[in-house]
Amino acid sequence: MATYAYVEFRLDEAQELADYTSIAFDLRTACDFAKSILEELQKPQPNYSLSDPFMVATIIRYARAFAEGVRRLNLSEKAASILTDQQRSNHAQLINIRNKYIAHSVNAFEESEAKAYYCCERLQEEGITSIGYGHRRVIGLSEQDWRDIIDLASTWLQYVEQRLTEETARLLPIVRKIPLERLFQTAPAFTPAPDTSQPQKPRVTPRRKRLRVGQEGKS
Q: Fewest 10 Å CB contacts: which of 90, 94, 163, 191?
C-alpha cells in the first residue's frame, strides 16, 4: 500500500495559489452563512435575533475577498468580465454597506438622537422634565438580499475555483524541476495554530525565492 504525504513550499510563483485559496474560503463561507440564515427565516417561527449577526458576518466575509491587504490579487478588477450589470450593482451595494455602515458609522442605516421628555398635561407648568436618547438601525437583510449574496458569492467562487485549478496545473511542472532536497529545505516550520498574540500586525509572509530555471532549477 502506498503512503502519500505533502510538503509545504515557499515560492513567489505560488503566491496567487495562496491568495485564491484564501479568497475561496471567504466566498464559500459567505455563501454558507447566507444559506443558513435564509433557511432560518423560512421557518414557521424564525429566530430574528440571528438576523443582525448573520448580516454582519456574511457581508464582512464577502467583502473581505475584495479588500486590500497581504494578498496581492485585486479580484474587483475582474467584475466587468464576470458579473452581469445587476450583479455588479448588487456587489457595489454590499461593499458600500460594509464600508459605510458595518465597518464605519457613516450612512443613514443608523441614527441616534437626543430626546426631551415632558408631560402633555403639564407642559406649560413643568416644561421639559428629563433628557433621554434613542437609537435605530438596520439589523437585517431581506430574503431577496440573501439570495443576491448567494448568487454573487457562487458566481465569484466558480471563477476562483477555475483559477485554482489553473494555478495548480501551472505550478506542478515548476515544482517538479526543483531538486527534492532544496524543495524540502524551503518548507516552513510546523505551526499548530496561527499566532494570535498581536492582531494589530500583518502576518509575516516569508521571503520567497524565485525559481531560476536553467541553473539550480534543474534536477
A: 191
